[in-house]
Write a structure and sequence with these properties.
globular, single chain, Glycoprotein, Type 4 Pilin, three-stranded antiparallel sheet, alpha+beta, 2 helices, about 110 residues
Length: about 110
């Protein structure tokens, strides 16, 4: 069943996104520490699978869509970019729901 967040005030949405991005980044970094490499795929659904299957799972929270992707308050899946052992680049498309590659109103792990 798809989880949908209720409409929040814009500042609460941004805080939630920053928290979600932090959790995803920490989870991916923990995976890298544990396995010595990033997950094999940067696809949101695959990241959620590998971070949720450990014992104990690395990441269990966050709102998900019907494809099990972690989504932002506007219902858009988070984007995850992996480059070897470099810190992951995670971002939300922001309120306009358009993927601007971390630019425009996108909210990123580097902000």
């Amino acid at each position: 069943m798809e989880q949908v967040r209720s409409a929040q005030k814009p500042d609460l949405d941004v805080r939630q996104v920053k928290n979600d991005i932090s959790q995803l980044t920490l989870g991916i970094n923990e995976y890298i520490r544990e396995f010595g490499k990033p997950p094999d795929s940067s696809e949101n659904v695959e990241i959620m699978r590998v971070l949720g299957e450990g014992h104990p799972p690395i990441l269990t929270g966050g709102f998900r869509n019907s494809a099990n992707e972690m989504i932002d308050p506007w219902g858009t899946p988070y984007h995850i970019v992996l480059h070897g052992k470099a810190p992951p680049f995670v971002y939300s498309c922001g309120p306009n729901k358009r993927d601007e590659g971390g630019k425009g109103d996108d909210i990123t792990s580097e902000q």
